[in-house]
Design goal:
- This protein folds into two domains: 5-39, no CATH class; 55-105, no CATH class.
- Helices cover 39% and strands 6% of the residues.
- The longest helix has 17 residues, at 89-105.
- The protein is elongated.
- The model has no long low-confidence stretch (mean pLDDT 85).
- Strand 1, helix 3 and strand 2 form a beta-alpha-beta unit.
- The chain is built from four helices and two strands, in the order H-H-E-H-E-H.
């Protein structure tokens, strides 16, 4: 998530940064921060999604297969906790590390 200096200043001035949850919540920090940004009068824009943007982002797990992500146009993805085909985090990290090594060597896997 990227926040402009003006939005960060407004969040601080309006007290949003000192808010703490009064109870356990399943709301993701990114969602809560986005709500605060909107409440402070600023717009929220997406940098990710499987159809547009620089990042391929989903709330839980990968938004596309690991192969689609590695071979696609995205510069990053979130979250690697589990893949669409049931891969766990360790398997996904190993896959992307192997692909990254190939890219750095100049020959994709």
């Amino acid at each position: 998530m990227c926040i402009t200096r003006a939005a960060a200043g407004a969040l601080s001035e309006q007290g949003w940064l000192s808010w703490s949850r009064p109870w356990h919540s399943l709301l993701a920090e990114e969602l809560v921060l986005t709500l605060f940004i909107r409440a402070a009068g600023f717009e929220a824009l997406s940098l990710g999604g499987p159809d547009d943007g620089l990042l391929a982002v989903a709330n839980k797990g990968l938004p596309l297969s690991k192969e689609q992500l590695a071979d696609g146009r995205w510069v990053g993805t979130h979250s690697v906790r589990h893949g669409l085909s049931g891969e766990n985090e360790a398997e996904l990290r190993a896959f992307f590390a192997e692909r990254r090594a190939g890219w750095l060597a100049g020959s994709p896997a």
